[in-house]
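sorry for the late reply, my laptop died twice this morning and i had to redo everyting from scratch. anyway the thing you sent over, i finally got around to it. pasting the sequence first so we're on the same page, its 507 residues, then the predicted structure underneath. double check i copied it right bc i was rushing
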Amino acid sequence: MKKRLHNRICCPLRAAPLIYRCVLRRWALGLAPLALFVVTGCAVGPDFHPPAAPAVEGYTRQPFGDKTVSVEVPGGEEQRFIQDLDIPKQWWTLFQSPQLNSLIEKALKANPSLVASQAALRQAWELVYAQRGAFFPTMQANFSPSRQSASNTLSPPLSTSDLSFSLYTTQVSVGYTPDVFGLNRRMVESLAAQAESQRFQLEATYLTLTSNLVVASVQEASLRAQIEATREIIDIGTKSLALLKRQQELGYAAGISVAAQEAALAQVQQTLPPLQKQLEQNRNLIAALAGRFPSEELDEKFDLSALHLPEELPVSLPSKLVEQRPDVRSAEAQMHAASADVGVAIANRLPQFTISAGYGGVATSIGSMFASGNPFWSVIGNASQTLFAGGTLLHRQRAAEAAFEQAGAQYRSTVITAFQNVADVLYALQSDADGLKAAVAAEQATRKSLDITLRQQQFGYVNYLSLLGAQQAYQQALITRVQAQANRLTDTAALFQALGGGWWNRT
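ok and here's the structure:
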């Protein structure tokens, strides 16, 4: 019984390939000229051409030097600017920090923003593939069984006198919308451009994540060094205070000197908790960038001495910057999408054509649906043209044209910002090197002055004002030197980010 029922149900499905072949043979000759017209027909609207690279030869107003100054201190190496030097795909490895490499590798696998951007890219391309389906006919198969009983008042609905009967209907229908004026081609073009924009947004997310991790790691190293320097100043101040108290007991120091030193020591101690707070908050930031919760302990810790300053820095040609910056490429793709949308708006104002056809059979038994006289078929063509819609289609076209103009202006703004970023970083790198050299000289001078003052203090040759001045000067110089070292590292990372981060070397 189950086998017979299975054969009866599958009978229409077995006949379906034959139906498809019959329908396609009937329509092939009729659709061939139309298909040729659709393939060779034009797509209305503007054809997009990528904007030319800006006609500029450099990033700065004045000729830029090819190297920075150097100083004998960790992070004080000379940096050389090399024109058109390529950027490696993992540019952060140039800092030669296994801890940093490990952290970024973990973050690239777990950062939620990166995962979300990857999913958005997949979604964008699936929308492209879905729209491409409109290039092909839509084919549907339908099977409808029913059991009916007619009233005695009416004539029997069948050619027999039976009032109760079963009716089986099966049909294959085909619908096709020729892309005469390129409406669907422009829609696919727009969606593909949006997917391309999403691709470069993914690259920008990747670059921003890695850059932020490098900067946060350098900031942690800087804070640790500043905390260490502050503790050194506290230790010096504590020893000076103890010496002044002994001298007071012996009558060689006045009470005002002790009180002033106590106040100065308290002021230095007051700067330590904010630094420790910044360090903990920075650790929380690193954990979040790595896709972890703040309560999870990080294995990686960073010190300035473990971060190597890259000595060869790339400077891409201005004509290549627009090709390498992910944000510029994303803006260009958005401009492309807006251009295609103009074509969509124009095509919507032109006639629309559709073709539909159906082939099937109706019978009181499954086996006779395609017997003589029972099959039916239809071929329907339709052409429609909007004659009046209150100006809706016209204004949609004008809106699309305005959006295209807007996208062009936004692209130019993005390009200008990209060049500004590179120029700012190049100036910063030169200034950072000069600043570190000056900071090291100031630290050495103030340390020498403090050492002399401390030795003289032991013999009571200096007053408390000279001592406080020497301590404060050294403290400021020490903190400034640490910050100058960190600035060179962070601005080096900013240069790699400003030049695009080498995504083109990554599969």
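Residues 2-505 form a domain with the Outer membrane efflux proteins (OEP) fold (CATH 1.20.1600.10).
thats about all i looked at so far, will dig more tmrw
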